[in-house]
Design brief:
CATH topology: TIM Barrel
Number of strands: 12
Order of helices and strands: HHEHEHEHEHEEHEHEHEEEHE
CATH architecture: Alpha-Beta Barrel
Largest sheet: 10 strands, parallel
CATH class: Alpha Beta
């Protein structure tokens, strides 16, 4: 059942369930809504690196955290074609693309739209994360065929000022509203390991679950401590606590694809398998996620074979 009226206390009660009870509950919800042996797989392409004016504490691509960061222009179309072809050759159906900046300028929009057209022309679904966008920009992206727009909440409203101060939580929610209004599929999740507590994790999931429409995809990231980023002293995430986050997300967002995202390279096969059982049914495929390391394609295929998982076509 889809709900949009979750309370933080209800979400916390799920987090505090005995692990076996929580996993039983989340896997039951999972099986009611998805084939548990199918995995949605996307690949990620960095289309513009560095020079972002935001001060997100987990990111090494902004000028506040890392003065040495490389600042590139938008990627050339030929590079997009090559990445899209590699994705097709691997049997994937979606290319996700990320640009490091606060928001696209109007001068960037024509090239962004050409990138989308290039990906779509090769028969792939296109997803982008571009920071904040206006309502008009969201409509333009939809008109040229963009399928998905990613814009994460990162953490709870309460904890957010400890992570980012150059934009507000309401700025993020406003972008999500514009994207929904334009008819784009929303990808929205957050990061575990930013110094948040259980209340913050519950609050973030409540915000996602209580949106007018649940996001199509919900990426759950585990903080990767990058050189040049500010948040290097945060306590390491207990992997069982991360599995709990996946399980509670699955229960509260029953029809969303829950994506096991950044941090997988730090997880054992057993931890990943527990996340898949708890309800994660989407991953990024490829050796790199924008600027962070990822599990190799060979290791993913080997794990899928061990677990009897198939790539969703």
């Amino acid at each position: 059942m889809i709900r949009h009226n979750w309370t933080i206390e209800e979400a916390k009660d799920l987090f505090l369930l005995p692990m076996n009870d929580l996993l039983f509950k989340s896997h039951t919800v999972f099986r009611k809504n998805f084939d548990p042996n199918k995995m949605q797989v996307s690949t990620l392409l960095n289309i513009k690196e560095g020079g972002c004016t935001e001060n997100c504490g987990y990111c090494s691509q902004n000028v506040h955290n890392n003065k040495e960061v490389r600042n590139t222009e938008l990627i050339e179309l030929q590079q997009v074609k090559e990445s899209a072809q590699r994705a097709k050759d691997a049997g994937l159906t979606r290319l996700c693309m990320g640009a490091a900046w606060r928001n696209p300028k109007e001068k960037d929009m024509s090239h962004i739209k050409e990138i989308i057209k290039t990906v779509k022309g090769m028969g792939l679904q296109a997803c982008m994360t571009l920071g904040m966008v206006t309502q008009e920009q969201a409509k333009e992206l939809k008109e040229v065929g963009l399928d998905y727009f990613n814009h994460n909440l990162d953490t709870s409203r309460e904890h957010y000022p400890n992570v980012v101060t150059t934009r507000t939580y309401d700025d993020r929610l406003r972008t999500l509203e514009y994207v929904r209004n334009a008819g784009l599929n929303v990808c929205c999740g957050g990061i575990v390991g930013l110094g948040e507590n259980i209340d913050d994790r519950a609050s973030m999931l409540c915000t996602l679950a209580n949106l007018p429409e649940h996001p199509h995809s919900v990426p759950i990231n585990m903080l990767v401590k990058l050189d040049g980023a500010k948040m290097l002293d945060c306590e390491e995430v207990d992997h069982l606590d991360f599995v709990r986050m996946i399980a509670v997300a699955r229960i509260m967002l029953p029809k969303s694809h829950v994506r096991l995202s950044a941090g997988r390279s730090e997880m054992s096969e057993s931890t990943q398998a527990m996340c898949f059982f708890a309800g994660a049914n989407s991953i990024f495929y490829g050796d790199k996620l924008l600027t962070t390391e990822n599990v190799s394609q060979e290791d993913d295929l080997a794990l899928f074979a061990k677990l009897g998982l198939e790539i969703e076509r």
